[in-house]
Design goal:
By secondary structure, the protein is an all-alpha fold. 74% of the residues lie in helices and 0% in strands. The radius of gyration is 53 Å and the shape is elongated. The termini are far apart.
């Protein structure tokens, strides 16, 4: 009897084992699928973020290139202006060194200013006689 009881207990014990393993495998599979889907969605989000950053970066590069070209044009204009000003200054210095400039004509008429008229000074601001 005891052997029969052991066999029956062993059979009951073994009977739930396949179902338990199947349930464990299902739980494990579902957990793996959930983790995989989260990983895939995270990868998709990261991809869209990287694409957006790449587009922003390309726009910034284009903006910087346009700015660089504008600065190069401005530098070229400034260099031309500098060369023209330097040539003008050199020509002016050469003209001054070759021929001295004539003195401006003296104005006709008295060279000195007219003397002040002698008159009575106003009392305001004047010192009075000493006593």
């Amino acid at each position: 009897m005891e052997a029969t009881r052991r066999n029956e207990a062993a059979l009951r014990h073994r009977a739930w084992l396949p179902w338990g393993l199947l349930a464990g495998a299902c739980v494990l599979g579902a957990t793996g699928a959930w983790a995989g889907s989260r990983s895939m969605s995270a990868l998709a989000e990261r991809r869209t973020q990287l694409e957006r950053e790449a587009a922003e970066s390309e726009a910034r590069v284009a903006e910087l290139q346009a700015l660089r070209e504008a600065m190069a044009r401005r530098l070229k204009v400034l260099e031309q202006q500098h060369q023209a000003a330097r040539a003008d200054a050199t020509a002016a210095a050469a003209a001054c060194a070759l021929a001295p400039a004539p003195l401006p004509p003296t104005p006709a008429g008295p060279a000195r200013p007219e003397p002040r008229r002698a008159g009575k000074a106003s009392a305001k601001g004047q010192k009075g006689p000493r006593r």
